[in-house]
Amino acid sequence: MALPGFPNPTGVAEYDDRRRRERLRATRLGAGWTRWRRTRLMLLRLSLVPLVALGAFAEYLGADVLPEQARLARTEPAVLPIAGPSDPQASDTAVFDLVGLGVLDAGDTARALPSLTALGSVWAVRYDQTGIDTKVISDLIVKVTDAAKVSNVVLTGHSMGGVIALEIAKHLHTGSTKRVRAVLLDCTPVDLDAVRAESRDQGEEMLRWMGWVPGARESRLLRLIVETYARHDRFVGGRYLIRGAEFRSALGDVLRDKILNTDAASNGLIEAQFKAIVAGGAVDDLRALAKPAAGKPRPAIVFIRPHNPYDDPIVNVEYSHKVLIDQVGGVDGTLLVVTTHTTGHANPIERPVEYNTVIADQVVPFVRQIQQDQSAAMSVGR
Description:
CATH class of the largest domain: Alpha Beta
Distance between the termini: 122 Å
Radius of gyration: 31 Å
Number of domains: 3
C-alpha cells in the first residue's frame, strides 16, 4: 500500500469500494431514466410476476397434472371375485359390494364380511378413477353374471356406496333380465340432507375447489395439501402451534395412503362420489325398486345403522331411516332396519364381528323369507 503523498510502487490499482458502488449505479437498469424513474422500475418489476407465475403453473401442469391425467385415463371399472357361496342353494346369486366416499376398491370390505357368502358368491366393485357411470357398472355386472350363469343379484353399499348401489339396482331391475333380490344399505345418506352439516360443508367446499383450480381433479400436490390439512387436529396445538413429530407422522400417512398409493381414490372420483349424493337420485331409485318390473318382484331393502344415531358422525341415519320407511316400508313393504350397538359410520373392517353377526342372524333370514313369500305369491298368481 502506498504511503500518503507517494505513488503506488507496485503499479496495481488500489481497491476503492466507493468507485465500485458508483460504477454499479451508473450501469444498472434504469440508470439513465430521469422522469418517473421509480414508477417505471416498479412497473418493470411487476411485469416479471406473471412470467414467474406462468412458469410455475407450466411446471405444475407438466410435472403433476398431465402425468396423472394420462394414468387415470387408463383406468376402468371392474368387478373382482372374492369368495364362492357358502350355501349351495345360493349358487344362483351373486353379491356385489360397493364402498363409500374416498375409497376405490371394495375388496378389503368384502373380505371382512364372509357372512355375505350365505347369500351367494361375493364380488367387489372397483370404480373407474375418472368418475362413476352406474350404467357401465350395471352392464359389467350383467356380463359377469351371464358368464357365470347367475340370474340373481344382491347389492351391498356402504355409506355413499349405497347411493351407487341403488342406482345400479334400478338399472338392473328395470332394464335387464337379472332379478335384484336385495339391496343392503350400510349407513347410506339417501340425499344431501342426510349428510351431517360439517361433512356436507367439507364436500361442498371440495366441489368449489374442483371448479376453481385448474387440474384440481388430478393434482397430487393439491391432494397432499388438502389431506394433510384435514388431519390438522393431530398436529396443531393451541394458538396454531404445530407439533413437529405429529405433523411429520400425518404427512407420512398422507403420502403413503393417498399420494404414493395407486389404489387410492383420485380427486375426480371423490368429486363424482359426492356429486352422486348431491344429485339426490336415491329417492327416485327407491320408488322404482318399490314396485315389480318386467315380471320381477321388487327387491328387499335392508338398512344397517347404529342404534345410537350419534355414533355415526357423518350421516344422519335417523333421517335416512325415515325416508326408507316412507318409500319402501309400511305393512306391505320389503324393508328391514337392523340396528347395531358397537359400529359407527359404515365401518365393517373395524367392526367385522358385529357386522357378520347381524348379517347372518337377521339379514340373510329376512332376504330368504322375502324370496320365499314372493315365490309363493307368484305360484298362486299362476
